[in-house]
Amino acid sequence: MARQKKYPIDRVTYPIQKFIQQEKSGGIVLGISVILALFLANSPWSEQYFQFFQHQLGFQYDGKPFLNYSVHTWVNDGLMSIFFFVVGLGLKKEIVGGELSKPRKAILPIAAALGGVIVPALIYLAFNPVGEVQHGWGIPMATDIAFALGVLYLLGSRIPLSLKVFLTALAIVDDLVAVLVIAFFYTSDISMLSLSIGFGFVLIMYIGNRMGVRNILFYAILGIVGVWTAFLLSGVHATIAAVLAAFTIPADMRIKESAYIKKIQAYLKRFKAVDPNDEIPTLTNAQLDILDEAIEETNEVIPPLQRLEHAMSPFVNFLIIPIFALANAGVSIDINAEELFSTNVALGVALGLLVGKVIGVVGVTLLLVKLKVTTFPKGMNIKNLLGIGLLASIGFTMSLFITSLAFSHEAYVTQAKIGIFAASIIGGLLGYFLLKKQTEE
Predict the structure, then answer these.
(1) Taking the domains of the chain in order of start, what are their residue ranges?
(2) Which of 123, 148, 248, 429 is most exposed by smallest CB count within 10 Å?
(3) 82-187+237-252+333-440, what's its fold?
(4) Prediction pTM value
(5) Do 250 and 305 meet the contact criterion of CB atoms below 8 Å apart?
(6) Which band of pLDDT confidence, cut at 50, 70 and 90, is reported for residue 6?
(7) β-pair type (64-70, 56-61)
(8) Distance from chain centroid for Cα 298
(9) For the segment 326-367, what is each residue's pLDDT rounded down to a tens digit?
């Protein structure tokens, strides 16, 4: 069997590609970004760090600023829209043909996720019932899917597949609820004209889907120029536009798998029949024609939704989320206890995540099993369910994002971030060691 030719650049790219393909890598990069943000925020360069994200970027139209926002806003409303677009693709994939497509399989993670968002919100409100601090009730509702799964995958193959599937489905439903919360509760004054224009573009994208349009450029232009821009100007958070746009992307195969296999086998026979010439580094025109046809058939069998998700996930995990963490995770630790606990924001967020998530996820799951509505997935028991509940308390990305929407008061933002960090670190470590102990028994 002929060996593939290796080039010097392969020695550089292969380790990077191998790292990116590992499930835990996204969580590792996110963790490094959080540490770097904390370092910069508490370093001699802290002033430059904070000022950089306040610089204004935008356009001029007829001498007037247009879409003129700070770097921080562009990160949260622009780059994070790409993150939410990929979240939307994942949601649709799970609903169409994944863990959320069959009601009996989906009921347990859906119910656990709902328990894991309602109980934390109630705990937060119990500590912060009135005033501006009340607006932070959505902060402890969210699970950071990259971090939680990253910790779980650190344990390797010793963890039952059913637990990984359960946590993934739970985090996806959790993200959906967070998106709905942002849409309905964290919006400014709404421009109905801009919102109507945005929904009009969504409708055009949906009609294109139903008509069989599979050109990704079609959806990209309408989604960015139309839907995203209109929602950004409407007052409804622009990340909602990304989720709506994602749900219009086609998720069906034009060619069945069995038919595709037969066609590819036929192309291989034709390719083999063409006189090969291994002595020269190029292909013949006949070979190129066959490969072009095979590529076209391959593009037909891959749903545009999965093609986009597969292509964009590394970009999101290793660029978008780390940049978001750099822009949002920086907290000056030069804060005294009196200032930290001048309100109950930090306490409400920390207990909402660390206690509320565990009670919500574990409690609802046990209740449904006890009532015989459903059963534990294979390999799950009460102890490792508790470990999953603790991992669900890791709330970095989405919790930080909702913090930026909930508060304008800088002290409240700092208090919320410290609560997020404390709960996420404690929950992540406890969840890891509990699950690790389970695998050793």
Answers:
(1) 82-187+237-252+333-440, 257-299
(2) 429
(3) Na+/H+ antiporter like fold (1.20.1530)
(4) 0.76
(5) yes
(6) low
(7) antiparallel
(8) 27
(9) 888 887 777 777 777 888 999 999 999 999 999 999 999 999
